[in-house]
Amino acid sequence: MTIQYTPRGVCSRAFQIQVEDGVIQDIRVEGGCDGNLKGLSSLLKGMKVEEAIGRLEGIRCGPRPTSCPDQLAQALKTAI
Prior knowledge:
Elements: E1 2-5, E2 12-20, E3 23-31, H1 34-44, H2 49-56, H3 68-77
Antiparallel strand pairs: 1-2, 2-3
Helix pairs in contact: 2-3
């Protein structure tokens, strides 16, 4: 399954997430903090969707009510 997601309230403009059998295979992010998001994407590869959601959901970026990790969690919720 490929998830196409447009994040809200963050610098990133688009997420493309590959999920197979409930496991994250690949994440591509357009925009945002390049190095941080590449690192986050690398760490999430091979992780179960539910675990990633549990770890990322609710993370804030400064005074913002959301963050790129939180938005990734929102995108991943569409896979379950």
